Amino acid sequence: MKSLIKIFFLAIITVAVITLLAKLNYDSVIEKPNSDNSEKITLQIATGESVDTIISNLVQAGVLKENWSKYFRMYLKLNDLSEKIQAGTYEIPKNLNIKEIAQTIQKSKGLDLWITIPEGLRKDEIAEILSEDLKSGGNTLFDKNAFLSLTNDSEYISSLGFEYTPTDLEGFLFPDKYAFSVDESTEQVLTKLIDNFKSKVGTKDPYEDIIIASMVEREGYTSEDRPIIADIIKRRYAEGWLLQIDATLLYLPKDWKHVITKADKDNDNPYNTYKSQGLPPTPICNPGLEAINATRNPKPNEYYFYIHDTNGYAHYAKTLAEHNSNIQKYLSN
């Protein structure tokens, strides 16, 4: 009898574990982007088309991975969405996740302009992407100059509910995928970006950390580099060193590919961290969550210097002599 009870409870535990793992896998899959490619695919959904046909067309179009079909079907069923799919023509980016695809095909009109904002762009670059993509999608209300004007409008910024009030919204335009309607105004577009920042990042990080995260975004090339570089920048700042961050020199010229010269390093402006003590007055770009989390949780180390070689690999040094040696070894022709 004891053996039967034991087998019974073991079976229950096994079923519970399998169910939990399946649930975790499902939760993970529905949040993953289908791809890194933001190319938009035109997809036609005919009136009365079956869910199976729609899923098959999504797969053939490259919008949905074939092995994710069952999860998409399950998501529609669990959320009672199958009957809400609308016939129509859709432009669907390849980098949507299952939830976003389902959201898109429920709207024959409305939230159908998907735009991806990459990490590490300045606000003027973001304004340009929004202007081009919204205009091509039929939105005639968005104005990039008005958008940029709002990013340093004190009255608008004070209405956003930050625990502190930045003078500029550079750094708070959260990089992500966004669905916009053809009739959203400039202010509504900007507010959607800010609300997403508040939702994904929160409002409790000190402004200094957002500035540092923006430098980490531009200076750190990998998830391994960023926490190390964040620690180096934070220690140099705390100990009163000149930060000497190359990326800050590129903010005012508005050119990330500009080749830095001695004249750039000698130029007297608040974004020149080779001459100006402390942090730049604002973030130098809009960082993603990885750079922000690296700044929140820097990886302790004893380095004070770093460079990236021509292949993008980071090399660290504890002393200026070691740093100069790395420059000679990895960057000299």
From TrEMBL:
Per the record, its GO cellular-component terms are:
plasma membrane
Site keyed Important for catalytic activity: positions? 219
What GO MF terms are annotated?
A: lytic endotransglycosylase activity
UniProt keyword annotations, A-Z: Cell membrane, Cell wall biogenesis/degradation, Lyase, Membrane, Transmembrane, Transmembrane helix
Which GO terms are recorded in the biological process aspect for this UniProt protein? cell wall organization; peptidoglycan biosynthetic process
| Entry EC number(s) | 4.2.2.29
Enzyme category, top tier = lyase
The chemistry this enzyme catalyses reads: a peptidoglycan chain = a peptidoglycan chain with N-acetyl-1,6-anhydromuramyl-[peptide] at the reducing end + a peptidoglycan chain with N-acetylglucosamine at the non-reducing end
> Which Pfam families does the UniProt entry name for this protein?
YceG
Q: Which family does it belong to?
A: Belongs to the transglycosylase MltG family.
Q: Which NCBIfam families match?
A: endolytic transglycosylase MltG
Q: What function is annotated for this protein?
A: Functions as a peptidoglycan terminase that cleaves nascent peptidoglycan strands endolytically to terminate their elongation.
Q: What is this protein called?
A: Endolytic murein transglycosylase
Q: Which organism is it from?
A: Candidatus Dojkabacteria bacterium
